[in-house]
Design brief:
single chain; mainly alpha; three-stranded mixed β-sheet; 69% helix
Length: 462
Amino acid sequence: MTPAPHASDADPRARRFAWTLFALALLTRWIWVLWVHPPGAHVFSDMARYLERAQGLAEHGPRFGVRTMAWQAWGTHTLMAGLMKLVGATAPFVGLALVWATMWAAVVPATYALARRILDAKLARVAGVCALLWIPHLSLAGYFTSEAPFTLVLIAGSVAALRTWELGRTRDGLLCGVAFAIAFALRPQVALFIALGGLALLLAAWRRKARVHWRAWTVAAALIAVSVVGSMWRFSAHTGRWGGVAENAEMNLTAARCHNIVTQAFLTEEGRARSEARGSTLDGRRVSLPGFRQLATTGDSHPLALRPALGGETIRFVGYIGDPQAHAELRRRCYAATGLVEQARYSLVNLSLLWVLNYPWPEASDRRAAMPLHVLSRTGAWLFVILFMVPSWLGTARALREGSAGARLCALQLLSLFALALVFFGTPRLRCPYDPFALILALPYLASLGAKLRAKLRARRS
């Protein structure tokens, strides 16, 4: 016997509202990428690397053994390369920009669909409108980054996971597996949520609190496993070793444990020595962290001060920028210099960068972007901190304690983000794909607060 469809699947008013949201989101995002902030005019740093790899892949194929192709996860530039075959691969990349904007537009009804399975109808509509007006998502539509596809599949996969939990249909498990397999290829950090979700599923089965539809979940797990193994094989084909999916993880972990702003790698000791003698942070193969640069402005007495483990804001070494042995040695030195207490403080500082003391990037570093864009982005960041930060924390705690399956899924998404930031570091850009989950968990608290304020106003008037 097939379970009855969820209200969000059967209500024609909800469908009309979802299509209205999508139409408005598509209009605003297309206007943004065509006239306000075309991403093809703002290609630098990460955006340039994605496009370079995508163009190389589209033109030459995989070219296994090219180590630079393993610097970042393979999903974003592979998706770009496929799209370039269809919509063109030359500047100003208008076709690619429209596809990226369309994915951001699809995030809006996807957020509404997720909210419909967790909140009441009124709050779900509020969540949909908030997603439509969400400034960080709008501003990121003007850049070629991984957030657009990752946010979409992360939310779509969460909706499919809830449908699998509620209905147990194999096709929903298939959609869930496809979505999270793509999410892993785009940003492997999703593996932490998948692990937490798997543990929650096993715990539910052990406690016998709900029927677990193993066939559907097995299909989902198999697809995700294929993505993981395939990603590891590709990494090995490019680097000659197993044990990873992207080499930038080594550099990011070193920065998180040493709190240096810039990491520079040189081919020779002479090159490293010349750079150090000149005090240059622009030589060699370099990577910098804008969030840590902002921490350096707080002053040594600030509780969130940078305080680099090795004394300087730049780490220079000889070797490849992603060399695991070199980074392991650097981290060993940093651990010895700081001790457990300071490393714990580093983790708290890293976590705090999800919300505070961190200008939204890439807007903050794009000197070609108009100042109003940066002001808009900063406004969106502060609105999140003021309105949603604490309520989302409270919602996470309540969901884990007594929430529905949907609320717990949102909470596990945020917990995986928090854990990632503790180990590595947080940024508004890293948090951006998870904002819809925070929004859904925060809205009940904000609605309750609003009701109490209205009641007090009525009492005073009477």
